[in-house]
Amino acid sequence: MEFLMEARWSPYVVGIGIGILSWFTFLISNKPIACSTTFAKSSGMIEKLFRGDKVAQKAYYEKINLKVDWQFMLVIGIVLGSFLSATLSGSFGLQWVPDLWAGTYGTNPVLRVGAAVIGGIFLGLGARWADGCTSGHGISGAMQLTLSSWVSAISFFIGGILAAQLLF
Amino acid sequence: MKNNTQLIWGLVFGVLFGFLLQKGGATQYDVIVSQLLLTDFTVLKIMLSAVVTGMIGIYYMKHKGWIQLHPKKGSVGKNVVGGLIFGLGFALLGYCPGTIAGAVGNGYLDATFGGLIGIFIGAGIFAAYYPQLQDGILQKGDYGDVSLPQLLKVNDWVVVIPAAFLIVALLYWIESVGL
Hints:
The complex is a heterodimer of chains A (about 170) and B (about 180).
Chain A: H1 11-29, H2 36-51, H3 59-64, H4 70-89, H5 99-105, H6 109-129, H7 136-143, H8 147-167
Chain B: H1 2-24, H2 29-36, H3 42-64, E1 74-75, H4 76-93, H5 97-106, H6 109-135, E2 142-144, H7 148-152, H8 156-176
Antiparallel strand pairs in B: 1-2
Helix pairs in contact in B: 1-5, 3-8, 5-6
């Protein structure tokens, strides 16, 4: 079982593993792997805590239904699975500022967290706008050969590549 | 009862997915941003090998009648505009919605205390303006949930097999030029 303790696996092993995992999510749960709706649900659930039940009556939250579902559990599972993998290989560690960011913008955690919040706003808005993210469109939708998913995935990378060139 | 069983399956699949993402390096900001800077192709290698593996199995199971597909409806206003907004956030945050969950589990605090809060705000903004967006830009250039085989009016395998070869050839080329 030593391979479970390695820090990195070949990207092809990981990709083929995710592809096979998708077969089973379709077979057992009748669902494709996807993540981003869960963040909209969480946002609605948090807002509901502060502003009450009327939040759940917003058209979008009525559409996605503010309840813990299969995908919500999947996202919680990702946190646990990543923690397990990182712990087994000894690569778990608390870090505020990634190395690549620090190389250009320095090691100030406030600047990095501020950028992460702003980046997160665009990411969260864009994921709902496009109705999917890198997993829902980029992996699951692309493997189903859905036009909307290929258009989205290409747009994610065009936007991302252009923005990264400006940032670094 | 059946519903609770599915929640447990969701958790199990998530643990496996998160484990694989972490082993692939996809929970790291540096790996994701290096892909967008076109200096490290790990993310694309993971995604394309997942797509080709998944595609062959899923179309096989579809033809056996074991599963049904779940295509998403789309439009130019949704997927191109939303996709570009997403891309801007993708570069600035350095994680996407799936990998940020993995980054949280990996101990990256910019993800936990920055990115997550931003994503909640962004999703909340969308929910607030959803009625107006839904009646406007999200309907521009609508093409529904059409698949590439349907669009080309051909048998599924006429797209699946060449697509598999093209993706494998692209991955082979990426390796051969040393990326």
